[in-house]
Amino acid sequence: MARARATYLSEREKDFLHEKTLEVLEKVGVAYNTPAAIDLLASAGAEVDREALTAKLTWDIIEPCLKTVPKTVLLAGRRPEDDRVLGEWPLHTTTDGIQTYVYDDLTGRRREGTAADLETFVRLGDALSEVDAIWPSPQAGDIDPYMLPLKFAELTIRNTSKHVQDEVREPGLVEPILAMYEAAAGAPLGERPCFSVTNCTIAPLQHDRDMTEAALKMIKRGVPIFILPMPQAGTTGPMTLAGTCIVNMAELLSAVVLFQLAAPGCALVSGVGSAVAEMRTGGYIAAGPEIGLINLTCLEMSKYYGLLTQATGISADAKAPNFQAGSEGGMTGLCAALAGADSLIATGAFDGVQTESLAKAVLDNDQLGALRRYVRESPIDESTALMDDILAVGIGGHFLARKSTRACSRTEIWRPQVFQRGSFEEHQAPGRSLIEEAVQRAHELLASHEVAPVAEDAAREIAALVARHEAARP
After folding, report:
1. From the CB of residue 97, how many other CB atoms can be counted at a distance below 10 Å?
2. Residue 46 counted as domain residue
3. Which of 192, 173, 172 is nearest to 182 (CA)?
4. Rounded to an integer, what distance in angstroms lies between the CA atom of residue 307 and that of residue 300?
5. Mean pLDDT along residues 146-150
6. What DSSP state is assigned to residue 169?
7. Contact 94/344 with Cβ under 8 angstroms?
8. What's the distance, CA 417 to chain centroid?
9. CA 121/CA 114 separation, integer angstroms
10. Burial call 210-225: b when 16+ CB within 10 Å, e when fewer
11. Is the pLDDT score of 425 beyond 80?
12. Cα separations (Å) of 83 from 19, 220, 321, 340?
């Protein structure tokens, strides 16, 4: 089968980056910031500093841990038809999260997100044809901060049946949140992992204590972990892309070791969150050629270690869903897809992943459809050569009347849902700009799409969990 591919590193360069990553882990080590991690690492033979809560790792500790990481990961939905198997599904996609702001595409105004926005964007993600999983967004600034984690989960569960990927930042939140998703799935997460989490390391070379302790609880319950290092070249990472990727891989491997020691065979995915800093302000650059090259490097190194991967996808630094946003997102997304990313953090975000809009989500859905066409496997053989047609039509003939033209046109040609094709005139009428068409499409989906309902007993159990959390307020 033919498949479009992109490579960046030679085998020698992979070996070099591997050697330098090990040098960092052996000579500098990593701060795990929790005694629970240090105990596990010490028992595996790592050199640890119990006072500083750091550990140094050698290849003889790392390699066995890499061998126990699964090669496929079930990312279940609430319903079996929403299940995806990472490593078998050709390009898994998730909405981008967690944005702070919502942009009105028609007025150009930006405001902080609300609970109602969260419901809208989760439900839109549930309706979008090219989206496999939901990373819920935006943040809901109108929800009481104490109640936010559980209310966030409740609203997400109610508005999508697709797999949910989110964050759990405190160990005390693990049990109630997992209980909510198990109620929604009607099964333990070890059987139906309808929920996975992102575990962000802290660059350079640190782990967050609370998030790590939460993850150590969740892996024992069957929750897949997406490890997401996020060094930024020039601030929390070295100024070169290679140096930043070395820090990324060191943080990644340090997490793989910890979680595999805690629960051998637990589901882990290598996420690529590394970026570059905007040196005038220290801000986060979400797109551009450097992000594509970081994706290529870290994806290839992750595959070097035999890990499943998730890349940052089609976000943008543009301040509106405009040409810049499409260009930035398309280039970085295509780099990741051609590099063989198993999963892509994709739709909805721009403004350095701070803002989202209805139009951006819908347009990104078309972008994903195009990316999937690029990486779809295609046979190059007698079935696609169509030699009978070529010989029959001959010189100066026409293929329009051939049976193969009608049959193959349905599969050979990708058809957008919103991107403009057809005549110039049909898209020049008042109210027919691409952004307005995308907003209209979003409203049509939101009006017509019905989310698979949560079972009544599960809804009652979820509401009771939220109420108990409220009653336990300190």
Report:
1. 24
2. no
3. 192
4. 10
5. 97
6. -
7. yes
8. 23
9. 11
10. bbbbbbbbbbebbbbb
11. no
12. 38, 21, 30, 20
- Whether 357 contacts 387, CB under 8 Å: no
Q: What pLDDT does residue 105 have?
A: 97
pLDDT of 430 reads 60
Q: Which parts of 145-194 fold into alpha helices (H)? A: 148-159, 174-185
CA 262 from chain centre, in angstroms, equals 24
The tokens describing 344, both together, are 């892509």
Over 99-123, what HEC string results?
Answer: CCEEECCCCCCEEECCHHHHHHHHH
Give the torsion through C-alpha atoms of 433, 439, 440, 441, to 10 deg. 110
Q: What is the CA radius of gyration of the chain?
A: 23
Alpha-carbon gap, residue 191 to 216, rounded angstroms? 18
Q: How confident is the model at residue 345 (pLDDT cuts 50, 70, 90)?
A: very high
- What total of structural domains would you count in the chain? 2
Instruction: Look up residue 137 and give its two tokens.
Output: 């967004």
- Report if residue 20 sits inside a domain: no
Give the pLDDT confidence of 278-290 residue by residue, as tens digits. Answer: 988 888 898 989 9
Q: Which two tokens stand for residue 277?
A: 């800093």
Q: Which one of 327, 349, 375 terminates a domain?
A: 375
Q: Is there a contact between 249 and 25 (Cβ–Cβ < 8 Å)?
A: no
The CATH number of the domain holding residue 241 is 3.20.20.480
| Helix or strand holding residue 60 (H, E) | helix 59-67
* One-letter identity of residue 322: N
Share of residues in the chain with pLDDT > 70 (%): 99
**Per this entry, what is the length of the chain?**
474
Domain that holds residue 74: 67-375
Domain check: are 386 and 317 in the same one?
no
464: Cβ contacts below 8 Å, ≥ 6 apart: none
Q: How far apart are CA 24 and CA 254, in angstroms?
A: 11
Tokens of 118: 């969260």
Tell me how far apart the alpha carbons of residues 307 and 270 are, in angstroms, rounded to a whole number.
Answer: 6
Task: Please tell me whether residues 100 and 194 are part of one structural domain.
Answer: yes
pLDDT band at 429 (very low <50, low <70, confident <90, very high): low
Tell me how far the alpha carbon of residue 167 is from its chain's centroid: 12
